[in-house]
Write a structure and sequence with these properties.
Oligomer: single chain
Mean pLDDT: 85
CATH topology: Trna Endonuclease, Chain: A, domain 1
CATH architecture: 3-Layer(aba) Sandwich
Strand order of the largest sheet: 1-2-3-4-5
Number of helices: 2
Number of domains: 1
Strand content: 35-45%
Radius of gyration: 14 Å
Helix content: 25-40%
Structural class: alpha+beta
Shape: globular
Order of helices and strands: HEEEHEE
């Protein structure tokens, strides 16, 4: 595993712990589809939450939020659609959250949750 992958994996682990401490129940980690990977899938009070985790050591390139482009949002929405179909969860309320992590030192990093960070029309499965 390269250094970037280690930082990403550590960030996803930290994000999962952060979410669990706030009442989320993690259902899946690193769910792979043909389009890519959903970082975390969680349940929060009956709502299925697709969580994108972004880790940046610093804000030199715009910080972690800058990496959540419209194209990235559309890809996450398509992967979520595949997840809903494959798990037979049509009709379940869903939303997209983002966890932004600044810094790679567990003692000093900052973690921010952005619930409902973006919308995706027609996210419910039709199958």
């Amino acid at each position: 595993m390269n250094a970037r992958a280690v930082i990403g994996s550590d960030g996803e682990r930290a994000a999962a712990e952060f979410l669990e401490a706030r009442g989320y129940r993690i259902l899946d980690r690193n769910y792979r589809t043909k389009l890519g990977e959903l970082d975390l899938v969680a349940d929060e009070r009956g709502t299925l939450v697709f969580v994108e985790v972004k880790v940046r050591r610093n804000d030199r390139f715009g910080g972690p939020a800058a990496a959540i482009t419209l194209a990235k949002q559309a890809r996450i929405a398509r992967m979520a659609q595949q997840y809903l179909v494959s798990r037979r969860l049509s009709g379940r309320p869903c939303r997209f959250d983002v966890v932004l992590i600044r810094g790679d030192d567990p003692r000093t990093r900052q973690i921010e949750l952005v619930p409902g960070a973006f919308d995706a029309p027609a996210i419910r499965a039709t199958a």
